[in-house]
Design brief:
The protein is α+β, with helices and mostly antiparallel strands. The protein has helices at about 305-310, 400-405, 415-425, 425-490; strands spanning about 10-15, 20-25, 30-35, 40-45, 55, 65-70, 75-80, 85, 95-100, 105-110, 115-120, 125-130, 135-140, 145-150, 160-165, 170, 175-180, 190-195, 200-205, 210-215, 220-225, 230-235, 240-245, 250-255, 260-265, 275-280, 285-290, 295-300, 335, 345, 360-365, 375-380. It has 4 helices and 32 strands. This is POC1 centriolar protein homolog B.
């Protein structure tokens, strides 16, 4: 078990974003930190203080999600402009665009082998892509509302997703079927992820709760109520012994999963905390919020050497034999409330609106008419991304009621106009509009089914062609055998 060393300390704050920081991820080699923002940019921060930072310009709207590939050679980002981009995290800044979702992309996540990418969207779908084949593979469609987050399990056999429909779903990637549904939330489920061994999943909600499920028994084993507002993001420590969470109550909480209690409350952000993430080795973690700050902290409270743990317990993250839950107790469901004994840490964080370190702008100008440097893989029915310039933070803050989540200065012009029209229109027109929305939902589901059937048809056709090639080869070999048989007696 890890030994407790010291309280977490603020190691560094990064200056460069001009609006809310919505997402963050460390590179596998622990040398870079990627962050996305409502200022429509993706930034790559080099953790060497003397190195320059890169600002990638290309998305036409809020950047909502970011994730490094396992090799660190690619960074995926999702946006409210309905696209996913794959960036090269260097000064060249080349990007490739995925276009298949018809609404805001909320989440992006690479599989552990880097071969696939899973995305979640407000179009109520979860989509899986082949990274190297540059191809959309299939959709997962059973959610009935916005899908907030989707994550691969460590072995890639499962996908977990959560939605505003108040459910967390577990999918089998081989059969593409939903194999389990957790429905214990009283509000939208905001975030979901697997622990490092794949034995548990955790999910958070707009009802201020954080829940951990045992994957062997599909039962709730831990239930935390330590925040006073919606939880927007969380991250497991690589050891599986700790978990950090960021909330709209402006705090970051750290819970000890072995002891089942809150151990730290961090105050560093002014406003909702939208992103929290541990580094791959667990020695650092980063937080981002509506105040535009990116804070990097030294963990200090866990001396576990994660690399040694992986080498000695490698079998725990392999499909055969199945993993076993040995690092999260107790096994019976119980609730953990906030404790006064938790350490409160309130670092002094200066104003960060100045540009430091030196930032290099890379990519296309979203406001220019010229084409940027990127290629497009697959197009979809959505022609152009939204051109709204308002700050829309509804995707991360106070999501338990969509009306409360969309503040006045955050509303898109189109949505505002629609609400004004509904307030003065007749019930008959309102009914007609609702019917149109229902028909659009049915059309979206039909398109998803057709996509899946097309994929199956392609697989069957490929199988038929392979079988035909085998049959032709056998037919060609048969005459040769008959010829040799006929020549035998003559000799």
């Amino acid at each position: 078990m890890a030994s407790v060393l010291d309280d977490p300390t603020l190691a560094r704050h990064f200056k460069g974003h001009k609006d809310a920081v919505t997402c963050a991820d460390f590179s596998p080699n622990n040398k870079q930190l990627a962050t996305g923002s409502s200022d429509k940019t993706l930034m790559i921060w080099n953790l060497n203080p003397k190195s320059r930072a890169f600002r990638f310009v290309g998305h036409q709207d809020i950047v909502t999600a970011v994730h490094f590939s396992p090799s660190g050679e690619l960074v995926a980002s999702g946006s409210r402009d309905k696209t996913v981009r794959l960036w090269t995290p260097n000064i060249k800044g080349d990007s490739t665009v995925f276009k298949a979702h018809t609404a805001t992309v909320r989440s992006v996540n690479f599989s552990a082998d880097g071969q696939k990418l899973v995305t979640a969207s407000d179009d109520k779908s979860v989509k899986v892509w082949s990274v190297h084949r540059q191809k959309f593979i299939y959709s997962l469609n059973q959610h009935t509302n916005w899908v907030r987050c989707a994550r691969f399990s460590p072995d890639g056999r499962l996908v977990a997703s959560c939605s505003d429909d108040r459910t967390v779903r577990l999918w089998d990637t081989s059969t593409r079927l939903c194999i389990n549904t957790f429905t214990d939330y009283t509000g939208p489920a905001t975030f979901v992820d697997f622990n490092s061994s794949g034995t548990c999943i955790a999910s958070s909600g707009a009802d201020n709760t954080l829940k951990i499920w045992d994957m062997r028994t599909n039962k709730l084993i831990q239930h935390y109520q330590v925040h006073s507002a919606a939880i927007n993001s969380f991250s497991f420590h690589p050891s599986g012994n700790y978990l950090i969470s960021g909330s709209s109550d402006s705090t970051v909480k750290i819970v000890d999963l072995l002891e089942g209690r809150l151990i730290y409350t961090l105050h560093g952000h002014k406003g909702p905390v939208l992103a929290v993430v541990f580094s791959r080795e667990g020695d650092l973690f980063a937080t981002g919020g509506c105040d535009g700050q990116v804070l990097m902290w030294k963990t200090n409270f866990d001396a576990l050497n994660y690399r040694e743990m992986l080498s000695s317990h490698r079998k725990r993250v392999t499909p055969d034999p199945p993993p076993h839950l040995t690092d999260i107790f107790p096994r019976s469901p119980h609730v953990h409330l906030a404790h006064d004994s938790a350490v409160q840490i309130n670092p002094v964080v200066p104003n960060i609106q100045s540009a430091h370190p030196q930032v290099v702008d890379i990519g296309e100008d979203p406001f220019s008419l010229g084409a940027g440097r990127h290629t497009s893989w697959i197009t979809d029915p959505s022609e152009h991304p939204s051109t709204s310039t308002g700050r829309n933070l509804d995707i991360f803050t106070d999501t338990h009621h969509r009306e409360e989540a969309l503040e006045e200065d955050d509303l898109e012009p189109r949505l505002t106009d629609l609400q004004e029209e509904r307030s003065v229109t007749s019930p008959a027109l309102r009914s007609t509009l609702e019917h149109i929305v229902q028909q659009l939902d049915i059309l979206t589901q039909t398109v998803a089914v057709l996509e899946e059937r097309l994929t199956l048809t392609e697989d069957k056709l490929r199988e038929c062609l392979d079988n035909q090639a085998v049959i032709l080869e056998q037919m060609q070999q048969q005459p040769d055998k008959e010829t040799r048989g006929a020549e035998g007696p003559a000799v």
